[in-house]
Design brief:
It comes from Agelaius phoeniceus. By secondary structure, the chain is mostly beta strands. It is 0% helix and 36% strand. Among the domains are: 139-173; 206-242, Complement Module, domain 1 (Ribbon), CATH 2.10.70; 251-294, no CATH class. The protein starts with 9 loop residues before the first strand and ends with a strand.
Length: 295
Amino acid sequence: RGISREPGSRWTEPGCQSCTCQVSIPSCQPILPMAPSQPGMSHHMSWQGGQVLCDTVSCSVPCSHPLPAPAGGCCPTCTGCLHEGVARAEGDVFSPSNGNCTICVCLAGNVSCLSPECPPGSCPSPSPADCCSCNPEKCNFRGRTYAHGARFSLDGDDCTTCVCQGGEVECSFTPCPVLDCPQHQRQLGPGQCCSTCRDPPAPAGCFLDDNGVEFPVGQIWSPGDPCELCICQADGSVSCQRTDCVETCPYPIRIPGQCCPDCSAGCTYMGRIFSNNETFPSALDPCLSCICLVR
């Protein structure tokens, strides 16, 4: 390429090619003295067959995280570190992208990372300044190991629930649902933890809470008013109906316990009862005579 190179010299060509100048074995020729006063004899060296041999530069990188080759260079350099795509200077201390309280340092192209060894313990609220605040202790309970927060039953008993909290096991009874049936209708089946409501028995009659009297199905009674009659239905309900009196007369006879007044048996006059066609003096005028006529 128009440039003279000394035999044995080495240089780098573009494209990271390492070249050297190689020649054949030299031959020596004596040179006569130029003047008689110059004693001795010198030699002239003649070089034959010079050629250039090139090969790709072989890089020896003695570090784990070298930086890319600088501009114009061929080999990476260990004067810094390349970690997760980020260039780090020599001696730089940093944390990786995943955090987790790990500390890394760049030394001679090598990245060394250290993670804190946290002793087992409780897990209070996480704090960025305390890397060990969330490393809860496991629970060893009856020959088995449980992780923090694990829930399990006690010896297969579903009635008891246990939880591992920071190395300690806390057990409690499984809460039962609130039942809406009276106590005498609750039952606890075999293998069950909580009581359930039994189906209410078929009604055998009608139970009245106001007076505590139970009437059989089909029973008819009056609840105190002679004009109202009630019947006990088959489903335990009570059905009542009032009686409307349609027969009227001026002086009806009212019989105790009977709903409607009686107009066919006689007359009621001034608190006295008179039979049909019976005559009697007037209470207002003794010269007047009255008679009871049923119409």
